[in-house]
């Protein structure tokens, strides 16, 4: 066990010395990988921030059932009772808005008062405002309910806002797919950069590797420092990417706060949770080690 630990400590020390031996080259490689990793981290931050906003906007949408002008005075109450009885699993709340009540609210608005004063009678119909429960496919479910309710007697129009909900869900779905493709691209950049770095190191240490083999060094002993070199490169670049993303979010949040304030709300971008970030760093380190193994296997056959 002590021998195994001593060999790994030696490999780590050798890999660190090789990184420090060429500071400018190592720093350039780390910077390339870190900047590349920063992009999907920022994309994930935007997506994480957008998802709660989307859920908040799309949860419990209101649908308005407008009755025909010739409907009975008690028709709205009958429709409200039917909704509560037949659609209890779909409907969260039902509110009846009488035509006189709606007209009174409009007349209370000074922008509409003069225009409404010229009307001989109240043209507004009775309405029933329905708030729906959450649903996995809320937009499509709302369309299905609207189609059913339009067929009821004394119902003239069913108005709901599913179109923009569908667009918002499509945008988020597009963003998720784009983020996955971006992560794949980042993984390829990490593999290519580490592969080239280890290749250059292997060619530089060509004579040293040959001497080590002559004195009986095993292939695992020869390869182990290069594996740690790739893993340390990925680990350091991952941590640097998180730091870059953190500092990049500061000016972005300042600009976003001003924009959100103009709409009377507050919004801020935040990094993914610590577990996700730690997992991402581990994955990058593993990719670096795998790329290093591939490179050292191909470039030390001499």
From TrEMBL:
Pfam family, one: FtsX_ECD
Principal location class: membrane
Transmembrane segments: 27-48, 174-198, 226-249, 274-296
Compartments in which it is found: Cell inner membrane; Cell membrane
The organism's place on the tree of life at top rank: Bacteria
GO CC terms of this entry: cell division site; plasma membrane
Domain FtsX extracellular: 62-158
InterPro entries: ABC3_permease_C (IPR003838), FtsX (IPR004513), FtsX_ECD (IPR040690)
GO process terms (BP): cell division
Domain named ABC3 transporter permease C-terminal: residues: 181-296
Keyword presence, Transmembrane helix: yes
Entry keywords, A to Z: Cell cycle, Cell division, Cell inner membrane, Cell membrane, Membrane, Transmembrane, Transmembrane helix
Membrane topology: Multi-pass membrane protein
Keyword Disulfide bond in annotation: no
Role description: Part of the ABC transporter FtsEX involved in cellular division.
Family according to the record: Belongs to the ABC-4 integral membrane protein family. FtsX subfamily.
Protein name stated in the entry: Cell division protein FtsX
């Amino acid at each position: 066990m002590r021998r195994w630990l001593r060999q790994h400590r030696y490999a780590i020390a050798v890999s660190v010395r090789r990184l420090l031996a060429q500071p400018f080259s190592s720093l350039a490689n780390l910077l390339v990988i870190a900047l590349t990793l920063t992009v999907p981290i920022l994309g994930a931050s935007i997506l994480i921030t957008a998802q709660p906003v989307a859920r908040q906007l799309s949860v419990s949408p209101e649908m308005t059932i407008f009755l025909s002008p010739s409907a009975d005075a008690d028709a709205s109450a009958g429709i409200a009772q039917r909704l509560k009885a037949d659609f209890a699993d779909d409907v969260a709340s039902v509110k009846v808005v009488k035509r006189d009540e709606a007209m009174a609210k409009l007349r209370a608005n000074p922008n509409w008062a003069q225009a409404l004063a010229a009307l001989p009678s109240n043209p507004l119909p009775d309405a029933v405002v329905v708030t729906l429960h959450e649903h996995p496919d809320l937009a499509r479910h709302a369309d299905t309910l609207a189609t059913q309710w339009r067929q009821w007697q004394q119902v003239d129009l069913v108005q709901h806002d599913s179109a923009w909900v569908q667009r918002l869900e499509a945008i988020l779905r597009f963003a998720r797919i784009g983020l996955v493709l971006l992560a794949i691209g980042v993984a390829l950049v990490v593999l290519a950069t580490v592969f080239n770095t280890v290749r250059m190191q292997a060619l530089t240490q060509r004579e040293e590797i040959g001497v080590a083999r002559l004195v009986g060094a095993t292939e695992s002993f020869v390869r182990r420092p290069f594996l740690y070199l790739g893993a340390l490169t990925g680990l350091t670049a991952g941590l640097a990417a998180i730091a870059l993303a953190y500092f990049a979010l500061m000016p972005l949040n300042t600009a976003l706060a001003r924009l959100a304030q103009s709409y009377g709300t507050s919004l801020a971008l935040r990094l993914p949770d610590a577990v996700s970030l730690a997992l991402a760093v581990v994955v990058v380190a593993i990719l670096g080690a795998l790329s290093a193994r591939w490179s050292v296997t191909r470039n030390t056959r001499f």
